[in-house]
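Morning, I've got a small favour to ask if you have a moment. It would help a lot if you went through both lines with me. Thanks so much in advance, here it is.

***
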Amino acid sequence: FDTLNAGIERFIGIIPHGSFEITGYFIGAIAGGIISAAITTKKYSEHAFEVILKDTIILFGLAILFLVLGAILEAATIINPAQAEQFFVAEIILVAIIVGIVFFKKK
């Protein structure tokens, strides 16, 4: 059972920063796909490309934000693994705030 407990503790230590990093990588990949599709369809001479470029810059910024938050959480959980559960709760709160800002902002 000691091995099982060690595995569970290691997994719980990965959850807080891993979910942020994975989300950041996915958002970055989506932004890259959007901009590459705009370039390959030769929309770079239209006004629509400016809108696409602004959207992808926002997505890349969001991806960097998620990666930085993941790195901070990773460093904090490596320093004190016992606090991983507290960081998981903080992560849920941060994600809720970020989602609220991104999706419910006034236009």
About this structure: Helices lie at 2-40, 47-79, 84-103. The first helix runs from residue 2 to 40. The chain is about 85% helix and 0% strand.
